[in-house]
Amino acid sequence: MLMLYDYLPSQNAWKIRVLLGLLGIAYETRMVSIFEGESRTEAFLKLNPAGAVPVLAVDNGQAIAESNAILTLVAEGTPYLPTDRLARAKVMQWLFFEQYYVEPVIG
Ligand SMILES: N[C@@H](CCC(=O)N[C@@H](CS)C(=O)NCC(=O)O)C(=O)O
Fold first, then answer.
1. CA dist 67 to 4, 71, 84, 95, Å?
2. Is residue 50 predicted with pLDDT exceeding 80?
3. Does any domain span residue 96?
4. Is residue 90 part of a domain?
5. What is the CA radius of gyration of the chain?
6. Per-residue pLDDT tens for 1-47?
7. Which atom of ligand 1 is least distant from the CA of 9?
8. How many CA atoms lie within 13 A of 64 on its CB side?
9. How far from chain centre, in Å, is Cα 103?
10. CA-CA distance, 31 to 48, in Å (whole number)?
11. Which residue of 3, 57, 85, 92 sits 20 to 30 Å from the alpha carbon of 29, by its own alpha carbon?
12. Which atom of ligand 1 sits closest to the CA of residue 54?
């Protein structure tokens, strides 16, 4: 079962929740109190050395961080991540746009 390390006010974690929900993928949630230092514990830093949510732990114990990397992992093989090169690059265009122009302002 997928495990999402989450923090409810996080817009980056929200994106993961939305996609998992749209695809009907079952997952478990572990809340991380980022303002209480839970994202800076030794255990959490092993999951994501950047000390931030979201993190998605997959079945084999590996974990992936960075919301848009998680989105592409989850979206692979679905219409949300096309195989056509140009269409796929267009998805990447908006994912990079979001991280550069939108996310820092909200953060
Ligand atoms: N670029 C990262 C940003 C992750 C991020 O900044 N997460 C925030 C919550 S939205 C966080 O966990 N901050 C805790 C900290 O930096 O200590 C992503 O897209 O996942």
1. 11, 6, 22, 9
2. yes
3. no
4. no
5. 14
6. 999 999 999 999 999 999 999 999 999 999 999 999 999 999 999 99
7. 10
8. 13
9. 13
10. 15
11. 92
12. 20
